[in-house]
Amino acid sequence: MRRGTYVRWGVPVAAAAVIGAAIGAGPVIAAVSGDPVLPERSAEQLLADAASATSKAGGVPPMSGTVQQTASLGLPALPQTADTSPLSLLSGSHEVKVWYGAHDKVRVAIPTQLNETNLILDGDQGWYWDSSTNTATRLTVKKDAGQEHRTPMPQASDLTPQQLSERLLADAEQYTDVRVINTAEVAGRPAYQLVLSPKAEGSLVQEVRIALDGETYVPLQVQVYAKGSAEPAFQVGFTQVTFTPPAPENFAFAPPAGAKVEERTLGDRPHGEHVAEERAEQAEHVKDRVKVVGDGWASVAVLPFDQKELAAKAAQAPEGGERFGPDADPKALLDSVLKSATPVSGPWGSGKLIKTKLVTALLTDDGRMLVGPVTPEEITKAAGTK
């Protein structure tokens, strides 16, 4: 099976994984308010409870439910792609069904209008089913592969839950106002809301929220609000969830009659030490090329950017591919984005400005790209910083 196929289901799966990873990150909340039903908790207490719950033996408890991701970023019109393309996740609403029995017992189903894809992992065996191509891929998972791809969670040996919460808040409160609300309801369950509001005037982000289940402290919903918007620009969260072990039949699969069956081994790559070395080299290379202007929610990344070189590569690239999905045309995508750009100039020079609800990018004529969750005024100010 082509690796591009894995990219198509990998992005929606990653969207579902955000819910588990959000405990260690530090954004956002639920939209439905009700009568107070949960004991009051400070931000430190709430984060300590969440860290303690996930560091217990077994980590996240068994569960199943439906995750919905919605994006309204104010992007320019993008070329039409299939519903399973990563580009499709930048707008509209998308649904993922999840069954979680343990870190090695997972099923994710991604329904679309006409087709459905399923990823099923049960121990060291699994299946990937794509109804659009009538192809079932039998997966063999190497033991080290499962460890390599597990979502990193705070471990008791790293920090105590209280130490972890204090460190997170110490970093956050320098740039962020933090508060807790105990009156939310997500997927029919009482939840706490951890609300983070940037202090920086130049940030496009109004607030970032995370909803934690009032009983298990599992993150249930993440939302990001742009300034001036009553509705979230981006959100991902459960619309239905049950904290009981999924039935064994949810992890069983048999290819339909007439389906094409393929074989693939996951984790067929260099050992962890080699992978770590490669990542360290890549990080060092990026660090030398990227400059950061400002701090906190007003940070702007500045990196070299050759528009002509990018256009030439996009023109030579085959239609479709691993990065954007099989139906995407890289040149059409680039043309669409650049067509929406606004010409700007100032003491720093000239270039093209691209703005969405949450991110602004500036492509300068002197070969730089500046990008950050800031207003156009902030990004052009950063362009003058040498």
Question: Could you outline the blueprint of secondary structure elements for this entry?
Answer:
Blueprint lengths: L2 H19 L10 E2 L9 H13 L7 E10 L18 E12 L2 E7 L4 E7 L2 E6 L4 E7 L1 H7 L11 H13 L2 E11 L2 E10 L6 E9 L5 E8 L7 E9 L17 E7 L5 H18 L1 E3 L6 E5 L2 H10 L13 H10 L2 E5 L2 E7 L4 E5 L3 E5 L3 H8 L3
Parallel strand pairs: 7-13
Antiparallel strand pairs: 1-8, 2-3, 2-12, 3-4, 4-5, 5-6, 6-7, 8-9, 9-10, 10-11, 11-12, 14-15, 15-19, 16-17, 17-18, 18-19
Helix pairs in contact: 2-4
Organism: Nonomuraea mesophila
InterPro entries: DUF2092 (IPR019207), LolA/LolB/LppX (IPR029046), Sporulation_related (IPR052944)
Protein name: DUF2092 domain-containing protein
Write structural notes for this entry.
This is DUF2092 domain-containing protein. Mean pLDDT is 77; it is low at 1-34, 145-158 and 320-326. The protein is 25% helix and 35% strand. It is α+β, with helices and mostly antiparallel strands and 386 residues long. β14 (291-293) and β15 (300-304) form a beta hairpin. The termini are far apart. The chain has a 13-stranded mixed sheet with strand order 1-8-9-10-11-12-2-3-4-5-6-7-13.
